[in-house]
Design goal:
alpha+beta; Protein Transport Mog1p, Chain A; ten-stranded antiparallel beta sheet; 2 helices
C-alpha cells in the first residue's frame, strides 16, 4: 500500500506535536513555516482537525471522512469510533494517493464479523488476498486483506485495539485501513 512521503509525514507529525504542546489545538486556523519543509497549516472545526503541507493533508475526526470512497463497502451495522485520513500530492515518482484509517464497532465476534465482511467485500468486486485468524496474548483477531482496481484494504477485527473502551457488550472493534491501490 502507498503511504505519504517520509519528509511530509515527519513534518506533519512534528507539527501535530507542536500544535498540541503549544496549545494551538484551541485555534481554528494557524500557519507556521518550518525551515526546509515550508508552510504547514493547522485548522480545527469542531472535533475535526486538518493539517496540510505541500499538497499533502492529514485529518482526524470522530466521524467518517466526507471524502471516504463510496465504492468501499463498510461492515453492516457499523458505529464510527474514530477516523484519520489524508491525501498525498502527486510527485515526479508517484501518483496522487489517498488513505483512510477508520475505527468502527460492529456486532459479533472477531471471526463472525470478519467472515461477514469478507463476503461483503467479495460481493462488491474485491478480491481477498489474505484472511487469517490470530490469537496473540489471549486476544483473538481476524485480519483480511483485499484489493479492487482502485483500493487496497486491510481490515482487522478484534476486541483489544485502539477504542476497546468504547465497545458495548457483544461488539468487536474494526480497524479499517483503505489506501489508493498500488497496482
Amino acid at each position: 500500500m502507498k503511504k505519504y512521503t517520509v519528509r511530509s509525514s515527519v513534518a506533519i507529525a512534528g507539527f501535530a506535536l507542536f500544535a498540541s504542546a503549544f496549545g494551538l489545538a484551541g485555534c481554528s486556523n494557524h500557519t507556521v513555516h518550518v525551515p526546509g519543509v515550508g508552510s504547514i497549516k493547522y485548522s480545527k472545526n469542531g472535533s475535526n482537525v486538518t493539517i496540510t503541507s505541500h499538497g499533502n493533508s492529514f485529518s482526524e475526526s470522530n466521524s467518517m471522512p466526507s471524502d471516504f470512497p463510496s465504492s468501499v463497502p463498510l461492515p453492516k451495522g457499523y458505529q464510527v469510533l474514530g477516523s484519520m485520513g489524508g491525501n498525498n500530492a502527486a510527485t515526479a515518482s508517484s501518483a496522487a494517493s489517498s488513505y483512510f484509517d477508520i475505527y468502527l464497532a460492529v456486532s459479533g465476534t472477531p471471526q463472525s464479523a470478519g467472515a461477514a465482511y469478507a463476503n461483503q467485500l467479495q460481493s462488491n468486486g474485491f478480491t481477498i488476498s489474505s484472511q487469517q485468524s490470530v490469537n496473540e496474548g489471549g486476544t483473538n483477531m481476524d485480519i483480511i486483506e483485499a484489493k479492487s482496481g482502485q483500493w487496497d484494504i486491510t481490515a482487522s477485527f478484534g476486541s483489544a485495539q485502539s477504542y476497546s473502551s468504547k465497545l458495548k457488550a457483544g461488539q468487536t472493534e474494526v480497524g479499517l485501513v483503505v489506501s489508493s491501490s498500488s497496482s
